[in-house]
Input
Amino acid sequence: MDRKEYFERTKELFVGGGIFGKGEALKGVRVLDVTAVVLGPSATDYLAEFGAEVIKFEASHGDQMRAVTPYAYFWKNMSPGLWEQQHNKYWVGMHLGNPKAKELFLEFVKKADVVVDNLTPGRLTEWGVDYKVLKEINPKIIQLHVSGFGSWGPWTGRTSYDAIAQSMGCLAHITGFEDRGPLKSGVWIADWINGLMCAVSIAAALNYRERTGEGQFIDQQQVENVIRMLDWTWIYTYLTGENRHRAGNRDLAICPSNLFDCLDGWIAITAFTEEEFKGLCQAMGRLDLFEKYRDPLERLKDENARALLDEIAQWTKEKHVAEVEKLGDKYGFAATRVLEVDDVYDGEAYQERGSIQEYEDEMYGPFKEQCYPPRMSETPSRLRWGARPIGIDNEYVFNKVLGLSLEEIEKLHEEGVIYKWNPDMPSTCPPPDWDGKSGIKFP
Output
């Protein structure tokens, strides 16, 4: 089978029949989500996209992200900052600090597989619902707690956000240009990488439980996961005693690999192998550079790398982006323009692979956004709906999971044990044009 046939057969595995007609890898796994902001919700978002039944318990004032939104922009009362890490979840308005709510939560635990929280370490203990209690009720339960600095250690309990974690994990220190200060990533990368690692550890714990019948407690520290993602930094520092410094867009372990300015935009160029580097030099009409820097270790030496990258920068200044891309295709080195957000969202390649998924949210209407990237042939991830108003699924969840009647659920509302959105806080409410029925999952 040649490569073309392989590409065609592989594509058939993923595009045939559509993702909504296929199975879900985590179907049947019930997750109790006691999280807020991004660090915790992103973890359960990954699980929900693969079919886990995630029940989110939200305080009456709402997840903080209901008020965190770019440029103070709201869409149909909804904050884009909330939407992104809340797909496919069921929303319950209930605070575990309420004694009756605590008892109800423990009933949920009996019927759950996983509990996830990112509250201040020890908060669940104060409420009487920590792992010791949960394990007594359900020995197979898996609890994951994620926080900035973990459940023990000298910094336990300190407040952490994405910028704090990037700084404490040294990511900000090594990011940016050498003649300027530290620079944090333009996205909440410390939150999202932690969410991913939390999801991976939960999947590992579920596999262990499948084999042994044993649940466990997982403690995830945000800063530790930032440290883990910094490639060769720590090994190099350990072996040499040298600190790692900022180097701009230059790759310190591959040369050339950098971003270069063209007449009409920016382009990324990488030429790693000898063949790729020779091709780049041919495209430049500078085979003398190939002869001089043929040895990859020679061109990685700081003085040589700076000189070579400067030569490439001078060359690209006189070229258009498309011209360099064509030369890369012709001569076999990697070259691609630096895309903007709309280039990706409207890009044909991303649409074809399902990287950008279009779906119909029952309450908010048609939507288009990025989906969790692993493409699985039999159990692909999928987006079914986004974030929802506080307590919108109270009836559905309490009836389906705990078997309570509508009368019993209404009494809980009257007692203030559970609640729904606050009309005085639009970001907790349904869309202004909501018909009162769309998106309701009960009866």
About this structure: The chain has a mean pLDDT of 95. The radius of gyration is 26 Å. The longest strand covers residues 53-58. The chain has two domains: 16-229+362-428, 257-339.
